[in-house]
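User: Sequence in, structure out. Go.
Assistant: Echoing your sequence, followed by the structure tokens.
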Amino acid sequence: MQKVKEVLRKPSKFRDKEEVINLAESKSVKRLAQHLDKDEKVLRIAKGAYNGVIGVLAATDKKVVFISRGVVIKKEIDISYCDILAAASARKLFNNSIMIKTDEGVFTISKVSRRHSNRLAKFIDSKANKVTKAFIGD
């Protein structure tokens, strides 16, 4: 759990104090901490929904993870940066989304706050591009 607490403590323009408190108390964040490798670090995190199930979308130094808070219905998605072809945000009036394109299809995380959707999508896309360039040897 230490890794997630560390990232939530860091002051950031990405999160305000109230949001940090809400995330720290979230069941999804507790499940996320159990899901990560020992040396893995959470770089960005935001609340969202996948197929109608509420949870958190986290960008770590190794992958993108969606973990739901559900007790009955649990959703977990792991996508390595090398599997991501592109990431983008879609803005709507009340429901912003992050779309992550892979060879398997497009994963859409909806109900992301307007402030986070664009920033997190750009972060995921740039991280995926860096990993791809490093793999190709550019």
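User: And one key feature?
Assistant: The chain has one domain: 2-136.
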